[in-house]
Amino acid sequence: MSGPIRRLGVVGAGTMGAGIAQLGVSAGIETILHDPIPEALERGAAQIGAGLDKGAARGRWTEAEADAARERLSTGSALEDLSDCELVIEAAPELPDLKRELFGRLAKVCPDAVLATNTSSIPVSSIATAAAKPENVVGMHFFNPPPVMRLLEVIAADQTGERALALARATGEAMGKHVIVAQDGPGFLVNRCGRPFYTEALRLLQERVADAAQIDRICRLAGGFRMGPFELMDLVGSDVGLAVAESFMELSYGEPRWRPNPIQARMVAAGRLGRKTGRGYYDYSVEPYRPEDPKRPDAASGPLPAPEGLIDCSARSLAAQRPDGVGFVRLLEAPLVELTRGAGTSDAAAEVAEAHFRSLGLLTEWVDDAPGLVIGRIVAQLVNEAHFALGEGVGSEADIDAALEIGLNHPHGPLAWGEAIGLPAVLATIDGLWQERREERYRAAPLLRRRVASLQRC
After folding, report:
1. pTM of the model
2. DSSP readout, 264-311?
3. Are residues 320 and 268 in the same domain?
4. Catalytic status, residue 120
């Protein structure tokens, strides 16, 4: 197949750069991989060859197609080797000064080419200022590993022209990616809209609503997530997570929704960075690092009746409603129900409530009291953040949902989730948290509040 461009340049032969170059040659585009370090260039070319061989072995393409793709790859140790390229994608380390210096040089070497940065966190607008023609600069945020991950996030800087945006999108589509377009800003779409999954989980842990293993288990069983937030933070590394959180805080000038959590700083100070150090929120010196999730119980032939004093805590805490009752939250048709007890809840009432839900074939998990408990609170914040992003014009509804569903493997996009739960219910959870916490992080997105008001008027 032929791509939208004849020749592609990739700067940086590390894991990301080599993966992007593999996508280029596989899309039928002559691709030049550049790195000033000969050993890195050799390793990158070898990684591409191994990737093409693996794809052929798995039947994704034929050996002849792999050989043809390999022929389309060349390497170059000088930036001048990229002078003929119509598109150059930079995959250098995440250092702002390095990237700006590189874009200044690239603009001289290939003055008419579209220059794309693969940054995941640096404002594209700040990189574009280094180029002689900033309208030619665009973000192309691939996810790791590029040949496997389906999403490509194209970022429009303030200076980006329509030609650069269209070429980046067309090239991504030729590479087989689902392309979304985001306006420049902290975290773009994927990392911004996915923040509450981590920030709210950390806050729940800080408030001792549940421990890390419980929160993860609830997210898997009640939310349908493949991994819980603490498992993912361990996988990425707490040092990386803290750096990202600090970057969000700096770029947003102190937005309360994105404030780093002291727990992150303590984990980094203690050297508990996650899997790479053998210890994070879990201990990886033992296998398995966590037990298997429990199986759903069989429903009783005659389910037990709902006990008196069973209180829905989706929008308000049990303490604010009936402290001697039993609070619960069940998200849609989830197989797990969260339960909480108040200061006046008897052991007998708690046992009856748990038995009731188990007779319905549902798992139960006891947590401390809070509006939305665990899963209701996390999902409400995901929906809320999506409405902030949508209202600020960062991306379209479809792209916001694709960002989390395809980019982060969430079970649903946040806006689709809001429609399924009901926006009034989401807003009630957010407002309940605000009423009880009085913190700016729990203010509702203006667009969410307007949408709910429109529904109520109708």
Report:
1. 0.95
2. HHHHHHTT--BGGGTBSSSBTTSSSSSPPPPPPPPPPSSPPPPPTTEE
3. no
4. yes
